[in-house]
Amino acid sequence: MPEIHLENVSKHYMEEGRTQYAVRDISLTVEQGEFVFLIGSSGAGKSTLLKLMGGEIVPDEGEVSLNGLNIARQIGPWRTRITRSFGIVNQECLLIRKRTIGDNLMLAAVAAGMRRKGRAAAGKALAIVGLSGVEDCYPAELSIGECRRVELARALVNSPPILLLDELTANLDDDNIWDLMHLLNELNSRGTTIVMATHASQYVNIMRRRVVTLVDGKLFGDVRNGKYGDIV
Fold first, then answer.
1. How far apart are the C-alpha atoms of 160 and 116, rounded to whole Å?
2. Residue at which a domain ends, from 110, 133, 159
3. Cα atoms found within 13 Å of the Cα of residue 27, Cβ hemisphere only
4. In this structure, what CATH number is given to the domain that contains residue 191?
5. Which of 52, 65, 94, 122 is the most exposed place for a label (fewest CB within 10 A)?
6. Contact present, 212 and 29 (Cβ < 8 Å)
7. How many domains would you assign to the chain?
8. pLDDT tens, position by position, 117-154
9. Same domain, yes or no: 10 and 81
10. Do 195 and 163 meet the contact criterion of CB atoms below 8 Å apart?
């Protein structure tokens, strides 16, 4: 099972001729099987940090590695192999509205190299999130909560060892949030590593997992069995 390690990682961009840091000098290790809540105000750098972890973007400074391999230095099939270790749910809904749920998941399966087994894998992933039988539906026919479950199913298609989740529970009611948290807890208990950016403070406090706090792109707190807002 993989371990994610960040060593003095920074990512910046230019704004009005000045360098602005999205994340700055972050060193962090996520061990296999951990469940980590990533918290902080909007603009604190949570989304950027998740994208760095998953290899979607590369750091301007420092190194992000998976099991000791620098992700940014991998090319071709080696990089593809590494990125398939991650199941990713972005903050924005990325379901293709003019494609059925089955087609959306099939596209993810093909991208993961599972063309022949894609339909079966999609059905299994939907069953895991409690949405068996929606393959022929379109995203517009489902509720917001169901669409978020579909996005989680898409991330689970190739059974990745790591889930990187960006505000999966945003704009959901308490029942939907609790159902998702219960599901994630079950996946974690089976060995899946989870790093989840969230503002759902009530559920962070209930779950009492590792809590990593970002402030202005910097690591401000890292607490085991923590609560929302813990910094020591």
1. 18
2. 159
3. 2
4. 3.40.50.300
5. 94
6. no
7. 2
8. 889 999 999 999 999 999 999 999 999 999 999 999 99
9. yes
10. yes
One domain, residues 13 and 119: no
Cα gap 123→134, rounded to integer Å: 9
Q: Is the entire prediction scored with pTM above 0.90? A: yes
Q: 196: which strand partners?
A: 37, 165
86-112 as b/e: b if 16+ CB within 10 A: bbbbbeeeebeeeebbbebbbbbbebb
Task: Look up the domain containing 166 and give its range.
Answer: 1-85+161-232
Q: Are residues 229 and 172 in the same domain?
A: yes
The predicted-structure confidence for 179-198, as pLDDT tens digits, reads as follows: 999 999 999 999 999 999 99
Taking the C-alpha atoms of residue 34 and residue 2, their distance in angstroms, rounded to an integer, is 11
DSSP string, 167-202: STTTT--HHHHHHHHHHHHHHHHTT-EEEEE---HH
Do residues 58 and 172 both lie within one domain? yes
- Domain termination site, one of 103, 131, 159: 159
Q: Which two tokens stand for residue 29?
A: 């290790």
Same domain, 67 and 97: no
Give CA–CA dist 127/114, Å, rounded.
Answer: 18
CB 56 within 8 A of CB 34: no
